[in-house]
Amino acid sequence: MDRLAFRENSAGRVVEAIGGHRAFVPHALPPQLRWTPRMVQALSEADRAVGFLGGLGQILPNPYLLVNTLQRQEAVLSSRIEGTQASLSDLYAYEGARAKSNKLPDDVHEVHNYVQALDYGLAQVREDAPVTLRLLREIHAILMEGARGTWRRPGEFRRTQNWIGPVDCELKGATFVPPPPEHLMAALDAWEEFLHAPQDLPPLIRLGLAHYQFEAIHPFLDGNGRVGRLLIALLLVAWQVLPQPLLYLSAYFERHRQAYYDLLLEVSQRGAWEHWLIFFLRGVTVQSRATVIRGQKLLALHTQYLERYRNAGNLQALVDQLFENPFVTGTAVTESLQVSSATAYQYLATLEEDGVLQETTGRKRGRRYLAHEIWDIIEHPLPEEVRGELEPIF
């Protein structure tokens, strides 16, 4: 790591670690921020967008109409940033088939673990459990359970040095070296204290600061990026910014991946908080608007389906389940509705005839069906003005 890249106004200090290498230790939060007009505008837009999103969360008759879909999109995209290739359809197909997790392809396994870790964390904060270092370790243990490699130490903070740089680079060629093990716990304790200390800062600013700091500390041997992005959703709920976990930023970070990495590094090297926070707040705005649009469309379709099957008993229950997972099989329907196989396939045939489902395999056995109208809303690209192509920040 090049010491000269880290200037006097850096967000931390470069230290000499045991073994002679250099590493970065971030200063405790919060930093001194300059409230420029651009940052104030970005915060105002983000607050307004989150307010609309929170309003949507309040009127949803069933929050899981949208929550489950968003969580799975987040799992796929956050994992994709780290190189995982599993798609949302892969994840849904696994869950819809009620497959055994020990038979999962590695990439799908890792994405499925992300969903489980996110579910666990959200369950804790809904019970008013604080976001603590202990919760971090528990989430990491779930995320890394059965993952590739035995060196990852699930649920444990690292005791050796890690680093960030080009693929297969050695420590001496690293772009960034997080705190050495002897500095790690002090940095984590200060980060945890910041999460719970009384603050005058707006919650979205605190969130952007906390995300940077976690990534700079990099407390685990692997999985830091995924845990850090997962924490955004947990803190939004824990701090009561949103009533439901409806906002995830991995889609924005993945679309602007290089800017995401570069801006985090610039904070470390020269204290470029304004650039990072404007980028972060734009992500909040874009993803909030995107979720509102998709949520409104899903809510309208859900209302239409429920009206169509208002007096249809189990068919209405099955339609509800399609909004949690638009991929479905006869076996899954048999198990979820506790009906015979013949009855399950009769329900599927009815929904296929009505145009709600499409059979996707072309087989006579082992058929899988897709609720294509739901899927189109989930996967259809949003307009450019909503997606928010990255404007110059500098």
How would you describe the shape?
Answer: globular
The pLDDT mean sits at 90
The ordered string of helix (H) and strand (E) elements is EEHHHHHHHHHHHHEHHEEHH
The CATH architecture of the domain at 3-35 and 64-275 can be named as: Orthogonal Bundle
List low-confidence stretches: none
Q: Strand order within the widest sheet?
A: 3-5-4
- Strand portion: under 5%
Distance between the termini: 25 Å
The percentage helix is: 55-70%
Number of strands: 5
> What is the third-level CATH name, the topology of the domain at 3-35 and 64-275?
Fic-like fold
Rg: 22 Å
> Count of DSSP helices?
16
Q: How would you characterize the largest beta sheet?
A: 3 strands, antiparallel
CATH 4th-level superfamily of the domain at 3-35 and 64-275? Fido-like domain
Structural class: mainly alpha
CATH secondary-structure class of the domain at 3-35 and 64-275: Mainly Alpha
